[in-house]
Structure to design on (201 residues):
């Protein structure tokens, strides 16, 4: 199995996964940061998880609430021989993240977090994700520019889109103004990627 096989599978099941340029950016960020323990929100069928595992020796905890995706992801992780380094948490990310926060063990635990889950709810997750992120480590968020609409709200076609865009813009502002984040970068490619680092204590 190779990446093209997963892309075909994603098309077949209409699963949204990181696109070509985001694939390269994510791969480069992982190589540059060399994390040991990654948290991902939004496993889908395992594509971005495999990219991160194949470009590092890290372990991955990844959260997904779609049962069918979890099944496919498990099979894909196995086919790429990275399954021993992955723990899939099946369920709602708000619940799973709150459980980790409640468990003292996970404070400052992950040295790379990739947020690629429910777009309209990123702001609700931010505080807890920062709690779980190790100081000086990296937060990467996909789709923050939401097909270019985030920078041009007026052209959003539906009310639902407008809501997502407003919430994504609020999320970007929250990150820019957060006292525990620095080095915020908005990478204007495809759907847009936000990059941030957590301050050292
Ligand atoms: C853009 S896809 C993730 C793509 C994946 N990271 C990749 O590039 O291969 C977003 C995923 O988040 C999952 N998701 C959405 N809301 C969620 C929630 N509340 N809890 C857990 N997973 C959720 C969706 O089922 C979907 O698989």
């Amino acid at each position: 199995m190779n990446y093209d096989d997963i892309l075909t599978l994603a098309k077949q099941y209409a699963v949204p996964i990181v696109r070509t340029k985001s694939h390269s950016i994510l791969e480069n960020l992982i190589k540059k940061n060399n994390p040991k323990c990654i948290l991902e929100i939004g496993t889908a069928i395992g594509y971005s998880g495999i990219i991160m595992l194949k470009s590092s020796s890290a372990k991955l905890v990844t959260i997904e609430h779609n049962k069918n995706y979890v099944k496919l992801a498990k099979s894909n992780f196995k086919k790429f021989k990275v399954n021993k380094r992955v723990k899939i948490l099946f369920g709602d990310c708000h619940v799973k993240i709150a459980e980790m926060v409640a468990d003292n063990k996970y404070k400052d635990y992950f040295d790379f977090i990739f947020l690629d889950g429910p777009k309209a709810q990123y702001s609700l997750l931010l505080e807890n994700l920062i709690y779980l992120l190790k100081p000086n480590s990296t937060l990467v968020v996909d789709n923050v520019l939401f097909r270019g609409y985030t920078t041009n709200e007026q052209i959003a076609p539906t009310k639902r889109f407008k809501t997502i865009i407003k919430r994504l813009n609020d999320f970007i502002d929250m990150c820019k103004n957060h006292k525990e984040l620095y080095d915020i970068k908005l990478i204007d490619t495809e759907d847009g990627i936000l990059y941030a680092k957590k301050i050292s204590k």
